[in-house]
Amino acid sequence: QVSAALREGRVGAGELCQRCLARVRGTGLLNAYISVAEDAALLEAEEAEKRYRRGQPLGVLDGIPVAVKDNFNTAGIETTCASNMLKGYISPYNATVVQKLLDQGAVLLGKTNLDEFAMGSGSTDGVFGPVRNPWSYSRQYKEKNPSKSHSENEDSEWVITGGSSGGSAAAISSFTCFAALGSDTGGSTRNPAAHCGVVGLKPTYGLISRHGLIPLVNSMDVPGILTRCVDDAAVVLGLLAGHDPKDSTTIQGAFKPFEIPDSIDVRKLCIGIPKEYHVPGLSSEIQALWSKATDLFKDAGAKVIEVSLPHTSYSIVCYHVLCTAEVASNMARFDGLEYGHRAAMKQSTESMYAATRREGFNDVVRGRILSGNYFLLKENYEKYFVKAQKVRRLIANDFVKVFGSGVDILLTPTTLSDAAPYVEFIKEDNRTRSAQDDILTQAANMAGLPAISVPAALSKRGLPLGLQFIGRSFQEKQLLTVAKWFEKQVKFPVIQLEDMKRHDCNVFQHQKSVS
Amino acid sequence: MTISFSRKDTEPMETARAAACHARGGTVPAGQSGLASWLPVVGLEIHAQISSNSKLFSGSQVQFAAPPNSLVSFFDASLPGTLPVLNRRCVEAAVMTGLALNCSINKKSLFDRKHYFYADLPAGYQITQKRVPIAVNGSLSYSLCIDNKMSRMVTKTVRIKQIQLEQDSGKSLHDDTRSQTLVDLNRAGVGLMEVVMEPDMCCGEEAAAAVRELQLILQTLGSSKAIMAEGQLRVDANVSVHHPGEPYGVRTEVKNINSVRFLAKAIDYEIQRQIEELENGGTILNETRAFDSKLGCTISMRDKEGKQDYRFMPEPNLPPLILYDAKSLPANRNHQQVVNIDWIRERLPDLPSVKRAKLVELYGILPEHSFTLLNEDGLAEYFENVIKHTQMKPKKVIGWVLKELLSYLKEHALAVKDSPVSSFLLADLLNLLERKEISSSAAKQVFEELWKGEGKTPLEIVKEKHLELLRDQEELEQICQAVIDRQEDEVMAIKAGNQKVLNKLIGLVQRATRGRSNPVLVKQILEKKLQSE
């Protein structure tokens, strides 16, 4: 829609960018952005506007403001991973996905907040402080949760975005930009998308280049796409997907971009409902939503059957071993020598390494490095790592069998419940939280399958709830088509944001205390 | 004053080495203890830098002695978010090497990460092939001479366990005075082939001969420049000793060896050290020892003592390396898109052993001469070029190439390609000799003149220096007569029956003619004259 407006000259790219930047400033309380590249963005917008005036836009994304999670390298803009280790680090190159966006004329507004090195499910564990869910400041939420107390407590009700791509989800949800990049290793794009009421797409592993994405788990990481609707996600996917000579794990052939038709027939579809996703802790309202969605498909004539993915319950523990092992390995490069933080310790190289890594990483990162190294020790390797890899294969085979039996798409919840208030969320440690929150999303990463979270309804508390569709490998078109059909049926309400200005002084104090 | 020698001093290495290898079939006699003899066991791990324009996983150039940190890509510096992209050329080099070493090539091999913290290893891990290397189960045949006699050569074989592709590290330079470490990443990420040889050798000389042969093979293939002094070939030796019939002893790893000669020395020193240690009731530690070329001994490297756990893990950013052969090659792919083992096999150049056999067969030269020809880079080609352009028999040409040319080259420390006497000039010269236009001693003078590299042809030098063979029979007879007249004693001796003295007279005639006379003719004239006197 915005693209059409730009093409028809109803709005100028410069003006659009100005407006978005103003929104970014207006929603500063959310802490969605780590850095805002105001000048560069305005310059890009100006160029885009010139192209439109000449009638030669670069593509549908030309002049469209976008945001990128701060674990993608961007030349000229800081890339921090919300870690002391990379504070102030300016990469000399663009990640392939960032370059593709820029080549399309997209206007990069800034870098969005996350858990340190994307390790977390709340976007609460980064050095720049937690991200606040825009829905905390929506009329929908306020109406359902009238503030019980006085002004000093007023701010304690805000809920988390989920994570780790919470900044990107909040940026979309609060209308600061039209598309944002996240990353998805265990659910990091879909989880905040569900909590923030936006569309979160995790494409098939290998469909989009990881070159320039600072890795969490190389064998599961996928750049994620966050947008307001499924159609937008399809457009962005079409521009980003395809082989990249710089990433040997991308598909060889070219990817054919697609458009989703407006009239969709789901009668020939077979929707699978995996029974193992009825996990303990699944809230009753999500349970009810899931059943309702199932009925929707049934009523529309689709075949809906219960299926079994028997190894699902092992997924989280298996993920823990594989994830920490790769983390231990991937984080080894942060030694303070070539780039990033370097401690002032000068006694020996080893002591400098130790101090650098102690100061540079938070407890979560250090904890994962420690356990990962433990799993990789010669005496433990077979017992943990190899076994976890075998279990991973079993999990992937579960999906192969189900899809082989004629099921087209799996329908599951994305999260166990709606977003928790920050004060509740931080009562549990990161590891426990991640294990709980990734439970429904994480198997798709193990199997490398495409999955999408679509906002479905508001909870009793007035917060978004999402449902997840999981598709066959490289069958994004089918997946997004079903997602779009579902999106049209549920008519998810638009967020009614209240003015956040009055909270600004609060957040200022808050940020100070975190950094 | 009495000087007492320690046992080490009185028993030079050479003896130990010779004994170790041959005299007693691989055993070394026990020392004073009088117990059973010792069997040394030597295995080698060789890192050969792949000769390639760019690095194993990045596009940076590979070049020796470039300015520090001038050949470093984002990936080489391990910038976050960068990914490895495998270089085809390195894979092909490893396949070639594997085929040349009679290995079976794995059609599917895997990459692994080996973790350790070191300043010149930017990523904190090295990408290598631990689980499934690119080539396995090969062998290398090499020859060595017994008792330093070129004429007595034996051929031995060492099994090749595997060849794996891996990244080289950078270089650390320690500035002790300023207590600084400087890191140069030019070498970081350069492709290496690690060739692992089974412990089938029993002395330094065998190891040296095996490495020398490997070096020649790599150079012939062009898969590595394999120059030890430049670090393109790095050899670590695993050494242990045990009594016959007993299990292998504890082994040490000897590093820091930068020439083939030092390799032999280091291994033999280490064998002797271990024997002495054990005979004196000591034990051998499983440790890494550095060879000190100045002191000629190995020294424990204390900093490498701590037990390392490399925490190996599959490299997640590289799919399995798939190679094809003629049978498995997909129909729509050619050798430029995928690596085809058979395509490479068909294009392998002649290996040194085949080349030597061909030289011996084609030219009738001695086997040991074929070794000498191949040991100098370009010498065999030089020899064959000379042969192409001369009527002289190869058996005679080889003498000129090995005696004249090679000793001049050695004396001036020049490579064959830098010789001031080209193969064409030498061929010209040998043609003059063959047509009996000059004598061989004159030819040697011409060669010396040619060596100056003044751009003159052999014929010009002959003319200029009047080195043509004396064709004037009368003049030659006069010179002979003059010699006879002056050497009364010698003439007497010859007449008394001592024919050997005749050679002295021939020599004198040669001197008088400045090498321009034909010795055969001179001998005839002298004999005639002496008889007629």
UniProtKB/TrEMBL annotation, chain A:
Keywords: ATP-binding, Ligase, Mitochondrion, Nucleotide-binding, Protein biosynthesis
Keyword Nucleotide-binding: yes
The organism of origin for this protein: Tinamus guttatus
Pfam families hit by this protein: Amidase
MF terms (GO), sorted A to Z: ATP binding; glutaminyl-tRNA synthase (glutamine-hydrolyzing) activity
GO biological process entries: glutaminyl-tRNAGln biosynthesis via transamidation; mitochondrial translation
Entry keyword ATP-binding: yes
CC terms in the record's Gene Ontology section: glutamyl-tRNA(Gln) amidotransferase complex; mitochondrion
UniProt cross-references to HAMAP family, sorted A to Z: GatA
InterPro entries: Amidase, Amidase_dom, AS_sf, GatA
UniProt protein name: Amidase domain-containing protein
Domain Amidase, chain residue ranges per copy: 17-480
